[in-house]
Amino acid sequence: MQRLIAGLAGAVVLTVAAVPAAAASADPVKALKSRVIAGQGVKVTDVTSYVDMEGKTVFLRRTGVLQYGKPVKGGAGTVAAADLRSVYIPHEGPVFDVIDNLLGDERTITVGRYSYTKGAKLYGATRKGKSWIKLKRPMPGGVSGMYSQYVNAAEPATLQVLIKHGERSGRTYKGTVGEAALWKASPWYRAATLVKPKDGTLQYELTLGTNGLPQRLITSHPAKEHWVESLVNDDMITIETRYTGWGGKVRVTVPPKNQVAG
């Protein structure tokens, strides 16, 4: 939450096995770049969990689409548009009491340099008759995006960082990467995280499909990036993302003007 508050200030078998092995030995970044075609994209689903000594608690789910297009100055890079819907699952306890007033069911549409969001508790009610709030910058996950997956393996720049820092086993790459490296390489990461990280790291496990494209990404980072350390100790946030429907036609449009405030 500390990062969120700071950033929002400026945002208002052999034969069978042969196929996966061949795919894994190919260049995943090159394979992804071949799919970066304007008007096409990929479907994504995220599950965010809080992990402590008692186990894993799912508190956020997100679904949506990412659309490729020509990058624009101040935008989120080659992923030029996105339509993401989040569902918050409340729980009892001091950890969740902190975020109950921040998170809720939310939808965020991003096109070019701007994002439009509705349902975010943090922004309060819109003017009468207005469903959406227009943000002054791209914030593709909205408020809930700060607790969702902000490492976008569907972006070539991010995928290159993950491949570089990961140790490969078959079609899976596992590793640890500095958040500063992701910030430097990824326009999407900069837009999603809002504030430049200092020295944080995250662990990840990236699995490619038999087509050589990202299929699943699991990231983990310390919960203290969102809560005060005395409350969460060494607890972690884990986010699992799945990518499906590569190459499908995607068309994300902004909300009607008469429904937008700001």
Automatic annotation (TrEMBL):
Keywords: Signal. It comes from the Bacteria. It comes from Nonomuraea wenchangensis. Residues 1-23 form the signal peptide. This is Lipoprotein LprG.
